[in-house]
Amino acid sequence: xLTTKDTGIEPxxxxxxxxxxxxxxxxxxxxxxxxxxxxxxxxxxxxxxTVPGRIGKETYGLCCNPDQKGGFEYIAGVEVGSISQLPxxxxxxxxxxxxxxxxxxxxxxxxxxxxxxxxxxxxxxxSGEQAADAPEFExxxxxxxxxxxxxxVEIWVPLMPK
Length: 162
Fold this sequence. Notes:
Layout: H1 4-7, E1 13-17, E2 20-30, H2 37-45, E3 59-64, E4 71-80, E5 91-95, E6 98-105, H3 112-127, E7 136-140, E8 153-159
Antiparallel strand pairs: 1-6, 2-4, 2-5, 3-4, 3-7, 6-8, 7-8
């Protein structure tokens, strides 16, 4: 296995995740113009604890539905068991069961782009793994403080099956 010294980063684990649904507020962005994502989280924050059918305490930042121009949909959301009771303004996405490499980002969330850059520019090319054509997501656990925007964030990147 490659080490952090070799690539600057390594996954904390590789998992086979079952299918699940993320629901919340979503908007379209591009890699160059994603400054609106923090404001999307601020709008969603007041509703996080009241999302119908919510499962668990984690929150998710899901990147999905890419287009040919470098755009993607970002959903600030939570896992739900059903979409039947969701508010009309909510976006949702059902992730298929998938193999993921799970990385950790520590510190200010504003610096998460540096962690993504290490994953995509250094770890993937050196790992021998192939990226799957599937959504990637951030998973914010209980030790993440939304007020200070600081703490541990898991970054789940899709892998092709072995």
